[in-house]
Design goal:
about 300 residues; 5-stranded mixed β-sheet; WH-like_DNA-bd_sf; LysR_subst-bd; 10 helices; elongated; Arc Repressor Mutant, subunit A; single chain; D-Maltodextrin-Binding Protein, domain 2; alpha/beta
Amino acid sequence: MLNMQRLEIFVAVVEAGSFTGAAQTLGLTKAVVSFNIKQLEETLGTSVLTRSTRQVAVTDAGERFYLHCLQLLQDVEKILDDVRSDHTGLKGMLRITTTPEYGARVVVPVLSAFAALHPQLRIQHVSSSKNDDLISGRFDVAIRLGQLADSTHHAKLIDWFDILPVASKEYLTTHHDNTLTDLKQLQSARWIAHSRLATPLNWQIFTPAGDNVLFRADAPPMIMADSAASLLAFARSGAGVALLPAWLVQEDIANGCLTQLLPDHRFPRQGIYALYPNTRHVSENVRTFINFLQSQIEKINSKQ
């Protein structure tokens, strides 16, 4: 039978890259770490690590085993959290990753309210423009925006949002005599696009007549960036046209900093999803937070 403490030691060695680093992290001696890894390999009947004088590397079998260990340890922690929460409320750690922009505007305020309701729960929020892997990143929940790619994880739809083509008055005056008023002009505009999208300037859009037509820019984007915040900054500075979430640009449109282009046309609505690992046991922390997030967003929407 596998020893759970040995699994924790193995994970610590992989993440530290050495027995010494793992020992320091766990508060153990290097000899204890080395002994437990040796016993673990004897139980498995295969080597999970290769040793040299300076570093430790993971074997192919060890890499696969490492991912299983992460999942198993996460499941055990969730089960323990549920047992504890039956008597004392939510406890343990809740790790959440979001994009920097949506995280700061929506998720962090919700997390603050959630933390106040569950004072014994530790919360860690990681903002990243990349779709970090839930398992290797040890995330309990990831908030993803846009068209959801195929995934082995569970996904719950939280909300929808519109995406809007926007530009500054400076750009419109300089490049279009402030008359960018039809789809053909928009297609030939100077575009700023998101570098993580495979086809950032190809969209099926709805015309005022209700027709569904293919929108494709006439030329590649002049500027590309890897975050919505950067796209917004480029658009504000007059660099071109950007396609951005309505929740991100509403204030700029309201105060005249940006102009929504072709407001009678509709780009496809995008989803907001809560992703969580596909495990047999979903922790009470995860379930409770996702439900709380959805309820808070519904309250925000009802006030708008």
